[in-house]
Structure formats: C-alpha cells, structure tokens
Amino acid sequence: VVKNFIIGGEALSKKLVEDFLNFFNGTEIKITNVYGPTECCVDSLLFSLSKENIDDLISIPIGNPMPNQQVYILDSFGKLLPPGVTGELCIGGNNVSRGYLNRPELTAEKFVLFNQPGMTEMKILYRTGDLTRWLPEGIIEYCGRIDFQVKIRGFRVELGEIENELLLHEYIKLAVVIPFEIMENEFSLCAYFEALQELESSELREFLSGKLPNYMIPTHFIQMKKIPVTTNGKIDRKSLPLPQMDTDLLYTPPGNREENVLVDIWSEILKMKRDVIGIDQNFFEIGGHSLSATIMSNMVHKKLDVKIPLSQVFKNPTVRHLGKYIRETQKDMFNTIEQADKKDYYELSSAQKRIFLLQTMNPESIEYNLPVVMVKLEGSLNTSRIRDAFKGIVQRHESFRTAFVLIEGEPMQHIRDNIEFDIDYYESSEDEAMRVAKNFIRPFNLEIPPLIRAGLIKLNEENHLLMVDMHHIISDATSTQIFIRDLLMLYEGKPLPEISLQYKDFSEWHNKLIRSGEIQKQEEFWLKEFSGQLPLLDLPLDFERKNEMSIEGSRVQDYFNKESSIRLKELATRNEVTLFMLFLSLLNIFLHKLSSQEDIIIGTDVLGRRHADLQTVIGMFINTLVIRNYPAPNKTFEEFLEEVKIKALRAFDNQDYQFEYLVDKVVKQRELGRNPLFDIMYSFRNVDRSLSNEALEKISDSLKISPFGVESTDAKFDLMLVVGEVNDNINFSLIFRTALFKIETIEKFSMYFKNLVSQVLENPDKKIHELEILDEKEKEEVIKKILLQQEKLFLRSIPEKQPSDSALEAEFDF
C-alpha cells in the first residue's frame, strides 16, 4: 500500500487533503505538498501533512525551503517584508536557471540581482509572481498570484483567499474567482464553482458574509458542471464564460440633466466607465474621498452653476440625492479664472509671499527645496530625448521661467519668455547614488530662473536615476506629479492637451478675490474658531525646548496589518467618514492621552486647487488648515468622531482663507522655538489615480518607472503624523524634531498609537477616558515605578533617629 504521496502543481486545498486522508481511514498516510517553478528545477519548498496536523491548519502552507535553496518575500520595490505581510516570493540558490533561451527581455524581468546589508555578494533571484507571506511558525503560506491580485473599491484583493473560503462550503468541490473590468483599473468579481447540488447566489453570499469583508464577496456566481482545464490539467481561466448581470443587483441609470452631468463627472474623477455608475451608488464606497469630493464639487459648480459645500456631499453621497439637492439649490454663477493681461510684473499669491519672505531671510537654506529624489528609469534611455523633454516642459509651464524680485519693496514675479536649461550628468553605483543626490540639492537664487534643476545618474546601460529639484515657491506635491506625467508624455512623443491657464493667472485672480471681500465670510468663520485663549500643546519632551527652530529630524515608520487595515476602513464606512477624518480623531485622542489636554490644535495640508480650471497647472497652491477639537474624556469615540467630521467639513468649506492671514489675526505674540498656532502636523496621502505610480508607468512604452531612495526627514514641526496606503496595509510615519525627542520615545509613541487604534477597533463605543495607550506589561512597569517612588518618599519621611517598634506601629498604624 502506498503511504507517501507527493503532490504539486496547483494550490492544494485543505478540503481536498481532508477528503484524501478520510478515504484512507485507518491507514497512516503522509502527504508532502511541494512547491516550485520550472525555472528553479521544479521543486523548491515542501510541507508535510498528516492527520495529526491537518486540523490545526486554516490553509495548506507551501512550507520551508529545501536544502541549498533560499527564499525571500519582497515588496514591489525589492525590499524584504516582515512576517505576516504579503509580498512576492523570490527564489535563489544553485537550482535557479540562467534565464530564458533567446528571450533577454523576459529574463531581465524575471531574474533579478539582489543584495541586502550583511550579504557578501549579489544573488540572482527568480521572481515567481506568487504572493506569499511568512506565518508565525516560520513557514510560508501561498496567497495567490500577483496577476490574480485586483483592486476592488480601493482595496487590493487576492483571489485565492476567496476561492479558499468557497471551498469550505460543504457542497462545493472546485471554485475559481476571476475579475472583470468595470472601470479603468477597477474590477468586479465572478465566482465559478462545481458543486454536489444546485446552489443559489444568495446562499453563497450569505455563506461568505460572515467570513469575508463585503468588498471581497463576488458580485456574480456561476455554477458549472465542469470548470474547463488546460491540456496540462490547470484551470483554463480564459475559457470561463463572462457573467451576466444578476437580477437581484439593481442598477438605475441617470434620468435627468443633473444626474447625467453628475455621472459624467464621477466617471472622470473616479476613472469609471459611465455605464456602470448607478444613481444609488455611494460616492465614498466606490473610491471617492475628501480630495475627490472637493474636485467633484468644483466641477459641478462649473457645469451646473451650483456651489455644493463639502458637507452636503457627505449628506447626499449618491447621484440621486445630490441631483435633487442641485435642483433645489439657488444658482451661484461659476467664477471663471480669466487670463491675466500681459505685463512685466505680476503679484505673488499669499502662499508665495510667505515662502519668499522666509527664503529671503535665509538665502542659503534648502528648507523650501522640493527634491523629487529619485525616480529609477529601467530600460534603454535616450538622453537626447530626455533633454528635449525637459526643455519642452520648461517652455510649457511658466512657473519654471519665473523670477522673483523686489519692486519698490514689494515682491513681484517676472516671467521670462525663454531661458537656458540643461541636465547635469553623473555616473555612479547604486551605493554611491544617494551621496550624489545629497550634493545635488543646493540653494536656489529666487531672482534667477529656472527654479528647477535636473540630474541623471547612469548606473549602467539599462538603469538610470533621474533627480529633479524644485523650489517650493513654484511647485507643490501635486505639481511634481503633474511634472513627471508631462515629462514622460513629452519623452514618449505623445501629445499633451493645451493649458489655457498659468499660475500668474491664478495669483492675479485670487488677489482680486481677496480685495473684493469674497473671502470675508471665511475669515469670520476662522476668527470665531480661534477666539479666546489659544492652547499650547505640552507633550512630554526628552530635551528642553530652546529659543531657536531646528528642522533636523528623524522618522519612525510602522503599519497596520491587513486585518486591522480592513477593519479601519469598515469603521470609517460605518460612521460615514473618510479615513482622513478617522485618523484625525485618533490623533487628537492620542495627543490628549500624552498631554491630558482637552483643547487641541492640529495643522493639516490641503491642495488648494478648489477651482476646476486649476487641476493641470504647476504652481504653489497648497494651504494649511488648522483644526481645533475638544477630546473630552466623557465622550465616546464615535461621538467624538462625529464632532471631528463636522469640524473637518467646515474647515474644508472655508479653505480659501490663507493660513498666513489667520496667524496675523489671532496670534498676538509668537514664541521662539515654536510654530505659530500649532506644533503638530497631520497629513493623509490621497493620490490622484491618474498621477499614481501605476498610471505613470503606463505612459511610457520603453521605460519602467519606480521610486528610489528615501523621503526627506526634515522636521518642520515638533511631531508630524503621515498616514497612507501601500497595497492592503495602512501605514504611518511619525516625523519628529531630534532637538526635542529621542528616537526611543517616538518608537514608544508609535506603539502607544497602535494600542489606541486596537482598542478603538475592539470597542468604538468606549468613552475616551476608558481608552488606554499602555499595554498590560507597560502598565505593570509604570505601577512598579510609582510604588517604588512612593516607598522612597515614605522612607525619607522617617526620622533618622528611629523610635521604638511600638511607637512606629502607633504612628503609622501598621
């Protein structure tokens, strides 16, 4: 009787193993699950299965590497990932082949050089394209294919997870889930399955609803007698029939002018196909967020002459309700930005004036440089074309040809028709590239354009690093993304649309708006918000604050795992808030716990491109909003979250009022060593899909574009929380002044913040005073320290000349 079975090829399901072991009931059977691609001599990992360990497994791992083979789980940038985080499995060792015969491009893509600190030599790794993760036991779990990973409503989904859950159904024998595109880079899911009896879609949705988040439940279910396979026995996904729309999924098309215009706008902003947007879909559930809602509001104003406050978008998040609001709201004619008259000098915007003043006070400072360091270009780079592309973009955007000068004591901008521009060229290894980049960033003279410089580091014939450094007075974060997109389009020889406005048109228009009194109502709002005594946040510092400002900083990074990230998104959806608002609430409570203060002011950055005509203009638009909240201990978290939502929406609706004006009006006396009005900054990184790395890569036919290097750790505030999303995980950074905090303290802060989030996820109904930032171990340590301190105080209180025992007992009542 055969007792040892070796199984490989397709992913092995737990149900199949259980059925197989039950078939040999009473016989000791051992199954070895082997994994490995042909490019690595077939088998590279293995895992042994038996009746003894099958019950402890949720899914079947692919195990540990075989002798003389090394495996690494890497992110999309080739960096090692920690346990529990899903990434691409890469295999090294003597078993790895040299590549594909006569296919150099595919070989270069799949066989890559790999090196990490501590390694004595470079290794050649084969990129399997399989998604895996390390389990706590030190074994590897297979999660699916990278090409089977899709984005559903903004969440990245591994299809294998859904298939594994379906296979747990008692009647399903085989299941496969495939995506079908309903919009650009957005998909819906269809599950195909073989079963022992007829199963209804509603039954399967209910079965999955307790196991998977809503966005992972397939839209369609198709039962088949036999799922097609290829000649080598693998599932033939290309032969599966396209799904038909289920009758229980209601789609209502737009029925009037307002609804049709809204659907057009949503389609453009969310990159969705128009015919899949029903009038009862929720804007925020299909990919919208605060930034896109602001853009949408501006486009509605331009096309329908109705101004929609952001708060109304949250109250009316569907096309049906928003269309009704538009029909019932009084017209407010859209204020078009006109091209400024031709003249020698133009006014600066208020944001530019602030930066001009600060740079002039310290002309050798690089504090307001915006280095795009670096972008890695993989492929055959044509240096002549990249030079021409730079010259073309400098000519396209007036900001790059602008000089800033004093005219009769007033800062003005002068736009030159033509300027000289060239690229600095270097040759270097990757190890030395960061040193070259550091020397590349140097002060700008605001009077001499261009206030942009470019450098190209040649690593080898197929790899270059592109460095771009701009001054903040002509650019912001969105501008750098627009710049890279336009540069790639020019490099590839693709046409760019005409731009009707330049930054000077905006600055002239906005200054007229201020003088006309249009901003007066917004000023009244802000002055009311910041009336009375303004609080100074008192955090536990490691070093005494000095009467001077240092921007030397460092960064502590952390992340929430996939499960916590999903729960955070679900918590936001359930409370009808954005992730921005959720983390703003968490940050307020966190600062309250550290300081015991109940009046907290936090700054946040906004893009400042509220006008619909400014989305492709390069310039300095960003503004700082200051949001004041009151995290009182007796409020529940969800009550406080609703307060923060209202505060944030009102702030966004009044974001045209410049931060500099507010400071001038409400800050009576500035304290040296502190920022005016607030010391804590918060930023949530929402990236426009059309400007994402994936979108930029699609522009270039000949180059692969990826980020390279590290972000700046300059600390312009005591503490800054930066939150963003990478694949399925929400990550965050704490950037801090090293003149105030030790890194060990901020590492504790990071742990405290995660503890707070965990408690909120477990019970969002808890009152703020019931939420704790210390874990049990640290609470014990704190209690021990307090008791030790009390003991020392007690001993100090005892007189040097000791009384008798009976006297002590009488005095202290032992």
Q: How would you describe this structure in keywords?
A:
five-stranded antiparallel β-sheet, 23 helices, six-stranded mixed β-sheet, 28 strands, single chain, alpha+beta, globular, 33% helix, 814 residues
Strand content: 15-25%
- Specify the overall morphology: globular
Number of distinct helices: 23
Taking all residues together, what is the mean pLDDT? 84
The beta-strand count equals 28
| Low-confidence spans | 245-249, 688-692, 806-814
> How far is the first residue's CA from the last residue's CA?
78 Å
Largest beta-sheet details: 6 strands, mixed
Secondary-structure class: alpha+beta
Spatial order of the strands forming the largest sheet: 22-28-27-25-23-24
The proportion of residues forming helix, as a percent range, comes to 25-40%
Notes on the structure:
- With 814 residues, the chain is an alpha+beta fold.
- Helix content is 33%, strand content 22%.
- It is built from 23 helices and 28 strands.
- The strands form seven sheets. The chain has a six-stranded mixed beta sheet with strand order 22-28-27-25-23-24, with helices on one face. Strands 5, 6, 7, 8 and 9 form a five-stranded antiparallel beta sheet that branches.
- Strand 12 and strand 13 form a beta hairpin.
- Helix 6 packs across helix 7 (290-304) and helix 17 crosses helix 18 (637-653).
- The N and C termini lie far apart (78 Å).
- Mean pLDDT is 84; it is low at 245-249, 688-692 and 806-814.
